[in-house]
Automatic annotation (TrEMBL):
SUPFAM superfamilies: Ribonuclease H-like. GO terms for molecular function: nucleic acid binding; RNA-DNA hybrid ribonuclease activity. CDD domains: RNase_HI_like. Pfam families: RVT_3 (PF13456). This is RNase H type-1 domain-containing protein. The gene is LOC107795219. Residues 33-134 form the RNase H type-1 domain. PROSITE patterns: RNASE_H_1. InterPro entries: RNaseH-like_sf, RNaseH_domain, RNaseH_sf.
Amino acid sequence: MRRRPKETKSILVFVTLTRQSRLRRVPPSLPSVSEVAVLYTDGASNALGSGLGLVLKVPTGKLIRQSVRYPEITNNEAEYEAVIAGLKLALKHGARWVILCCDSQLIVNQVTGNFQIKEQRLQKYQIEIHKLLP
């Protein structure tokens, strides 16, 4: 029996990387294309291990792809690790805004502050994301 891949929706979120702002869904005004990066992330975990993948389109148009394997982290932790790795890369490449495309509604809503983080293991990721904002 062939299994069809589960369809997921990407959720677009503007994440600001400027000192004056905090995470938000929509920028106050449209940023310049030269300041915007687009980040696609995914994390996964199963009995054989965990990993993350990301594709970052930096403001110059260059595509950067990364994947990392982890021995033992949860699926949500892998999703967070992907977002953090992507934000670090975006900063390194001069982005001031990031459009985050993530298939985890939980992660997107926790990052934007719409959902409270109840699991203590995930709170460190929220702190790390906010440290990345200059």
